[in-house]
Amino acid sequence: MKTLLHINTSLFSDKGQSSALAARYVERWQAANPGGRVIERNLAEHPVAHLGAERFQAFLADAADLTPTQRLALAESDTFIEELRAADAVVIGLPMYNFGVPSVFKAWIDHVARVGVTFRYTANGPEGLLDDRKVMVFAARGGIYLGTPRDTQTDYVTHVLNFIGLRDIEFVYAEGLAMGEDIQRQALEQAHSTIDALAA
């Protein structure tokens, strides 16, 4: 049975444009994999706590030294990592906020990028410890940034996922969504066409 991890990061939950694009892909994936399982991780409805000193120490300390709060933080991190490991493919709905990724997505990254668990340092540099799998990123943006210095998302997401071992990454962009109805319609039509082709 195939498993798909579906991560939404929009503050608008399922009503965000990036969420709608991701949902379109998930719907078509389910049609092509009727026995498949979808793991839903909605970071708007269930936000991840941002990494503070106590929470970070939970990832480094011996189990016997953990406080009750740290044990909960470690269990949450373990859950996110196990969801990644269980998935044959990953879908991420990713809006752009202030030229970056949503803070809840950065918090999720901070919980899955764990030394000794999803990556390690070697004499030849860092090595990702997760087995590679397909990652689809559906990036919705109010302006047009692809190929410009203001697109901080593409490189960041690529680098951080590569760092933990995920290298098969594909982006689908819908840009200019706040630049008028015609540009929005054309951008969404193009993204929908790409999604349908990818899921076919």
From TrEMBL:
- Keyword annotations of the record: Flavoprotein, FMN, NAD, Oxidoreductase
Record flagged with keyword Protein transport: no
Using the UniProt record, name the top-level EC class of this enzyme in a single word: oxidoreductase
Q: What is its EC number?
A: 1.6.5.-, 1.7.1.17
Segments spanning the bilayer are none
Q: Could you confirm whether the keyword Heme appears in this record?
A: no
What cofactor is this protein dependent on?
FMN
Give every Flavodoxin-like fold domain span. Answer: 2-197
Q: Which domain of life is it from?
A: Bacteria
Instruction: Give the catalysed reaction(s), semicolon-separated.
Output: N,N-dimethyl-1,4-phenylenediamine + anthranilate + 2 NAD(+) = 2-(4-dimethylaminophenyl)diazenylbenzoate + 2 NADH + 2 H(+); 2 a quinone + NADH + H(+) = 2 a 1,4-benzosemiquinone + NAD(+)
A Pfam family: Flavodoxin_2
Cofactor stoichiometry and binding? Answer: Binds 1 FMN per subunit.
Q: Which residues bind FMN?
A: 10, 96-99
InterPro entries given in the database record: Flavodoxin_fold, Flavoprotein-like_sf, FMN-dep_NADH:Q_OxRdtase_AzoR1, NADH:quinone_OxRdtase_FMN_depd
Molecular function GO terms recorded: electron transfer activity; FMN binding; oxidoreductase activity, acting on NAD(P)H as acceptor; oxidoreductase activity, acting on NAD(P)H, quinone or similar compound as acceptor
Q: Which HAMAP family match?
A: Azoreductase_type1 (MF_01216)
The family annotation for this protein states: Belongs to the azoreductase type 1 family.
Q: What does this protein do?
A: Quinone reductase that provides resistance to thiol-specific stress caused by electrophilic quinones. Also exhibits azoreductase activity. Catalyzes the reductive cleavage of the azo bond in aromatic azo compounds to the corresponding amines.
Q: How does it assemble?
A: Homodimer.
Q: What is this protein called?
A: FMN dependent NADH:quinone oxidoreductase
Record lineage: Bacteria, Pseudomonadati, Pseudomonadota, Gammaproteobacteria, Chromatiales
